[in-house]
Amino acid sequence: MPIATVNPATGETLKTFEALTPEEVERRLATAEAAYRKHRLTSFADRGKLMERAADLLEADIDDVARTMTLEMGKPLKAARAEAAKCVKAMRWYAAHAESLLADEKPEARDVEDSGAVRAVVRYRPIGPVLAVMPWNFPLWQVVRFAAPALMAGNVGLLKHASNVPQTALYLEELFRRAGYFEGCFQTLLIGSGAVEGVLRDPRVAAATLTGSEPAGRAVASVAGDEVKKTVLELGGSDPYLVLPSADVEKAAATAVTARVQNNGQSCIAAKRFIVHADVHDAFRDRFVAGMRELTVGDPMSEDTDVGPLSSEQGRKDLEALVDDAVAKGATVLCGGGRPERLDGGWFYTPTVLAGITEDMRIHREEAFGPVATLYRVDSLDEAVALANDTPFGLSSNVWTRDEDDIARCVRDIQAGGVFVNGMTASHPGLPFGGAKRSGYGRELAEEGIREFCNVTTVWYGA
């Protein structure tokens, strides 16, 4: 895949970039190692000042960087601004909290005495350059939620971004440079996917984090495993959205529309499978379908647009194949189901709701990465939970109910990294984020995220 900015609203190639040569990659790896040797010795106070400076610069750049994101991957401009603002928030959160999150810990006195020590502490130390392989769908946020904790921990970052968002990737490198970080603390590697293995195998690279597809995660995890290097993976999701008898159906349906089409439906944590109890099914269905029909599909640069184009022509073809397979096998199209006739040239797809889903349909098992929802009718909580878990993925989930017993059952039994009760899934710097099953392993954000790439060191003192 060429490294290029291609406007998904028009299909026009706007700018192309040459991949780094092996010699240039080597120079950047050497620079990263040198930067790490210096950055790891800085104080939390100094790191916090740098991160706050980066946040200030990004805040000043919000309008420009939002337009770049929209131009490169098609998210509505208002969503792009919100993404940039969220990054500012995360930077400031880690600048304020990193020192306390990584403070030395003292084991229980009885355990210290039993170990034969006079005293002992547990210390969190940085590990070195970390390779981040990042996707296009949240081209700023996915990177910052890795970079902010990694840099505050004393590590340095090497970014291999998706090939269709090169300008956003280069902006991030420049942002941290402008903030005053040592040269090499955060670098963008404009390389193809075929060059990732060589970088990951380099002994100067300590670990890797990847957000992306399951095949990409398998590839990175395989190489990292062979090299015995730590990885964090956040992969696909086919998140269930349960609506149970005591739910506020009107609010659940309105939220469901946003939960499904956020980021043009191209979000791992977007709700995709809507599992609704028979007692409230018809009322939810009517409101949900009406809400999906009312969405404005169009130019993502327009403030009035709710849903922009998919990021690529192939992405739309993949989505169409899932829908066509379902319809051919008996699914009912309640709304949408194709390309909007009035929008030519771009990779648009109409918000769609499918009902009558059966196990032999691909969309029952595979992630639909676009504004397509599947609607299921169930007769019991047992059936709802079983259907929620009937997927290889386990990123997040949503449960709508006022019944405390139902909530307890769902929290206990749904196989996912998150259960959001009476609300849609969202990430926040203070809450750990990650998945189960084939949605990956490890956690980002919060205390768990900053500690993922630390050497947890036991310091034992004898007499």
UniProtKB/TrEMBL annotation:
It comes from Streptomyces cavernicola. It holds the Pfam family Aldedh. CDD domains: ALDH_SSADH1_GabD1. Belongs to the aldehyde dehydrogenase family. It comes from the Bacteria. This is NADP-dependent succinic semialdehyde dehydrogenase. Keywords: NADP, Oxidoreductase. Residues 3-459 form the Aldehyde dehydrogenase domain. InterPro entries: Ald_DH/histidinol_DH, Ald_DH_C, Ald_DH_CS_CYS, Ald_DH_N, Aldehyde_DH_dom, ALDH_GabD1-like, GABD/Sad-like. PANTHER family: SUCCINATE SEMIALDEHYDE DEHYDROGENASE [NAD(P)+] SAD.
